[in-house]
Structure to design on (164 residues):
């Protein structure tokens, strides 16, 4: 037989068994004991019986009997749960920026903002105004990139960790 005829035969078998139900291979395997749920682990009914997984969700928890769950207060966590959650300390204040960096940020956003505002409000834009706005944007960007620095800090010492 050629590889093509084997492939055709396998394909015919797949098509022929398309509507057949699959055999359940797990039918003869027993249910593991660790999967059994008992009342101690929280199994129960929704009517508030002992071991209820969701207490307070039964039909008579509102007292009115009109609608189940209507007028019910939201569930609250026990008082001891707050101690288990990590609350990070407040972040340190931002360092004060120098005048050049503030001016660079203003130029970076102010130039395009002025051009957008002037275009929306139909203000007359002379050539020197457009040139100044675009130049301010470019200058602000260049100053911020140059001041960013891409090297290690000066006080990092001789061992700067893994260098790839």
């Amino acid at each position: 037989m050629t590889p093509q005829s084997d492939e055709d035969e396998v394909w015919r078998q797949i098509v022929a068994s398309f509507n057949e139900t699959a055999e359940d291979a797990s039918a003869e395997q027993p249910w593991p004991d660790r999967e059994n749920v008992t009342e101690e682990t929280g199994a129960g009914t929704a009517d508030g019986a002992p071991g209820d997984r969701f207490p307070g969700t039964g039909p008579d928890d509102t007292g009115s009997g009109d609608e189940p769950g209507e007028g019910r207060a939201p569930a609250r966590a026990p008082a001891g749960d707050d101690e288990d959650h990590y609350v990070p300390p407040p972040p340190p204040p931002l360092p004060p920026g120098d005048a050049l960096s503030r001016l660079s940020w203003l130029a970076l956003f102010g130039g395009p903002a002025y051009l957008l505002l002037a275009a929306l409000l139909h203000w007359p834009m002379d050539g020197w105004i457009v040139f100044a706005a675009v130049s301010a944007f470019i200058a602000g960007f260049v100053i911020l990139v140059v001041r960013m620095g891409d090297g290690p800090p000066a006080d990092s010492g001789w061992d700067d960790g893994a260098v790839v």
